[in-house]
């Protein structure tokens, strides 16, 4: 059931990202909703949930991106998994912690993209960091924190139920 | 309790297996491409349904905004004028290219290469899923005959080339993406080079011979050396020529002819040149016309 829910979420998030999200871009950079969703679910639902959703989102994103077919699968899956690991070792998830965590994971994910593009030199890396990595990290963190605040009550209830079951 | 422990064990096993898959995908990128391509086929069909729905919402939003909120008449007129301008730019470029070619070769010999390509119209339904690639999603896929490496153009010039396809959609890598490379030629001096994207909405003509006298304002067109594009399609105009001491080649920045941020419809080149039979027929017709007077 959960898998179907994640599949449905991926089928909504990825088309939204490719068609409508350009209305919300800053300096031509859009938030990576796939990464945000995988990380949020990872933080609040655990490694497995984050990993599964990340793999699904990554697979769909790879199909609608000009890059290599593995790159989004790895970054979104890895992001969801890392967020799950981080979430498991935190007693209380606050918006500030979540924002910082999302920014770090977004930077790591962008680092994989930069690495895959074989930049010619340090200037190109620095250009990529300034023009995309930092802007996207900030954007992802803000969107993630916003979504968390929006659905905080429901997620904290779910988390208590999950922890109680384990 | 036993059930809970078993579920926990399964969960851990699933995590380990999926994490191993993730590591394998990262460490063996070329092998994983084939597997993901195989998996991507049916997933692409599922994805095409919400994609089409969101795309229609996107078009609805932009249509409403443009038609009703932002000065309806002026916008319509402006759009029509832009269309006309694009068309005229394309025609102008074709004419320039024809003139240049006529000066160098016999008209009949050149005609075969100047003949129009077979194209297919497609609609832009989305942008690349990441911020890292200059890509666009088109609403035509393998079922419509679209294949990887086909060129994509507008009447004004080159847009990019197809890099991914599934049954109902395809992904275009834009001419401004650093991963793209197109064989180009400077229209005035006939110096050849490779056009690569810079990633900042511009492109660069590389490997221009050192003794070439290219200058800002020169137009760059496709050379037709690779099978993707026919010769003579506009790529852009040179804005700045760079020649560093000790370098074996010059390079120059190109402002693309097509405004890639405002594309709604494009043409996919399914065959860069008409087949040899029809070209011969056309040549015979022209010869016949010439003999008449």
Helix content of chain B: 40-55%
Unreliable spans of chain A are: none
Oligomer type:
heterodimer
**Biggest protein-protein interface?**
A-B, 47 and 54 residues
Which sheet architecture does the biggest sheet of chain A show? none
What's the N-to-C terminus distance of chain A?
Answer: 19 Å
What sequence of helices (H) and strands (E) makes up the elements of chain A? Answer: HHHHHH
What is the count of structural domains of chain A?
1
**Please, what is the average pLDDT of chain B?**
81
Proportion of beta-strand residues of chain A: under 5%
What is the gyration radius of chain A calculated from CA atoms? 15 Å
Number of helical regions of chain B: 5
Category by helix and strand content of chain B: alpha+beta
Report the principal-axis shape of chain A.
globular
Shape of chain B: globular
Give the topology string of chain B: H per helix, E per strand: HHHHEEEEEEEEEEEEH
Largest sheet of chain B: 6 strands, antiparallel, barrel
């Amino acid at each position: 059931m959960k898998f179907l829910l994640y599949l449905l979420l991926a089928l909504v998030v990825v088309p939204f990202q490719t068609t409508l999200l350009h209305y919300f871009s800053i300096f031509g950079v859009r938030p990576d909703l796939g990464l945000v969703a995988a990380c949020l679910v990872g933080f609040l639902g655990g490694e497995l949930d984050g990993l599964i959703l990340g793999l699904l989102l990554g697979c769909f994103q790879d199909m609608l991106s000009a890059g290599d077919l593995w790159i989004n699968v790895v970054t979104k899956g890895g992001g969801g998994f890392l967020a799950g690991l981080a979430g498991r070792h935190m007693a209380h998830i606050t918006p500030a912690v979540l924002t910082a965590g999302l920014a770090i994971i977004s930077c790591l994910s962008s680092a994989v993209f930069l690495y895959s593009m074989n930049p010619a030199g340090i200037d190109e890396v620095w250009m990529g960091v300034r023009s995309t990595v930092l802007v996207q990290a900030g954007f992802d963190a803000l969107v993630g924190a916003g979504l968390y605040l929006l659905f905080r009550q429901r997620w904290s209830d779910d988390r208590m139920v999950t922890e109680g079951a384990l | 309790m036993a059930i809970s422990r078993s579920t926990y064990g399964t969960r851990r096993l699933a995590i380990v297996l999926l994490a191993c898959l993730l590591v394998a995908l990262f460490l063996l990128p070329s092998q994983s491409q084939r597997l993901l391509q195989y998996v991507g086929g049916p997933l692409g069909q599922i994805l095409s349904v919400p994609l089409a729905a969101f795309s229609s919402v996107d078009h609805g939003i932009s249509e409403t905004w443009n038609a009703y909120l932002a000065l309806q008449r002026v916008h319509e007129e402006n759009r029509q004028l832009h269309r006309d301008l694009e068309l005229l730019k394309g025609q102008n470029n074709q004419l320039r290219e024809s003139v240049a070619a006529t000066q160098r070769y016999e008209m009949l010999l050149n005609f075969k290469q100047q003949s129009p390509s077979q194209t297919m119209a497609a609609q832009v339904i989305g942008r690349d899923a990441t911020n890292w690639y200059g890509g666009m999603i088109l609403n035509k896929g393998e079922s419509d005959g679209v294949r990887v490496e086909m060129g994509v153009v507008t009447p004004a010039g080159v847009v990019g080339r197809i890099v991914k396809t599934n049954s109902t959609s395809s992904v275009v890598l834009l001419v401004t993406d650093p991963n793209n490379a197109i064989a180009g030629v400077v229209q005035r001096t006939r110096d050849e080079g490779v056009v690569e994207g810079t990633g900042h909405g511009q492109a660069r003509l590389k490997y221009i011979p050192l003794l070439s006298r290219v200058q800002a304002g020169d137009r760059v067109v496709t050379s037709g050396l690779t099978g993707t594009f026919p010769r003579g399609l506009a790529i852009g105009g040179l804005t700045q020529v760079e020649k560093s001491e000790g370098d074996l080649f010059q390079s120059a920045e190109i402002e693309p002819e097509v405004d890639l941020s405002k594309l709604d419809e494009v043409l996919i080149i399914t065959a860069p040149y008409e087949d040899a039979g029809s070209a011969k027929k056309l040549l015979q017709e022209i010869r016949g016309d010439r003999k008449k007077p």
